[in-house]
DNA sequence: GGGGCTACTTACACAAAGGAAAGCGGTTAC
DNA sequence: GTAACCGCTTTCCTTTGTGTAAGTAGCCCC
């Protein structure tokens, strides 16, 4: 129930700092659109209206905000070309590829979890 | 800007299903307390009031809700011992250990990201 | 000069997440 | 009997995230 007060827990400090990092990571990729946007732009660079068209359901307000957010975190870069009218292209940076293994883990775990939950619902009924 | 319509994107379908799984995983571990609770109970099984004491800041309403959630997802088990008064112990299940590598990835990425952002703020100023 | 396009911004609204405080049913301690 | 503890639940409120609709600045076309 409780380890004694004096015996430090196995790796409590390491654990809380690792928790802090994990929560930071979550806060960066969290939200309905962020991962989708990153993946979308990793497939190819696109303009605002093209992204809006591909991500059916996102409003321009949210898209603008999310793009700003992603740019701040260095996942994407905003290029302005002085054509008339001006062309603005959003491009995934190399840094967005640093998410690859994280997304891989998330996806692998998420996939097996869905299976597990489906299984346990079947067994329950 | 846009790949031609007929040439299918590198792995678009795989990508959207992987996105779906990743979002599922996020929805399960998402929230201010879930990961902390899992890690807390992985260190040792505990009673409601002990958890509440260890996680300073969580309200009983939220704690009860989160514990229910985690139990539904099979991360923890609720044991009732018929002592007087009844003792209730929450214990991390083996399944919660399946999160280990995911938490590891999150934490590793989060740690390096914080460094990177700090760096880029320094360079900017 | 009216309408349309692009890349947004602004104002408003709503729903979900989370927190504060009180209560509750059962028990033990005094 | 009354006070306290445990494991919650209930009520109310604030904050955060997201959505809808409209507007705007700059340019083009006719």
Automatic annotation (TrEMBL), chains A, B:
Keyword Transcription in record: yes
Pfam families: HxlR (PF01638)
Domain HTH hxlR-type: 15-118
Domain of life: Bacteria
Keywords of the record: DNA-binding, Transcription, Transcription regulation
Xref: InterPro entries: HTH_HxlR, WH-like_DNA-bd_sf, WH_DNA-bd_sf
One of the record's GO molecular function terms: DNA binding
PANTHER family reported for this sequence: TRANSCRIPTIONAL REGULATOR, MARR FAMILY, TRANSCRIPTIONAL REGULATORY PROTEIN
Name under which the protein is recorded: Helix-turn-helix transcriptional regulator
């Amino acid at each position: 129930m409780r380890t004694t007060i004096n015996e430090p827990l196995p790796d409590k400090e390491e654990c809380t700092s690792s928790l802090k990092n994990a929560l930071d990571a979550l806060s960066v990729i969290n939200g309905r659109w962020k991962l989708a946007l990153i993946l979308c732009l990793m497939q190819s660079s696109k303009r605002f209206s093209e992204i809006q068209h591909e991500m059916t359901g996102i409003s321009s307000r949210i898209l603008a905000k999310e793009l700003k957010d992603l740019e701040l975190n260095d996942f994407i870069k905003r290029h302005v070309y002085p054509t008339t009218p001006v062309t603005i292209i959003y491009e995934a940076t190399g840094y967005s590829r640093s998410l690859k293994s994280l997304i891989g883990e998330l996806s692998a775990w998420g996939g097996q979890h869905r299976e597990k939950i489906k299984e346990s619902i079947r067994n329950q009924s």
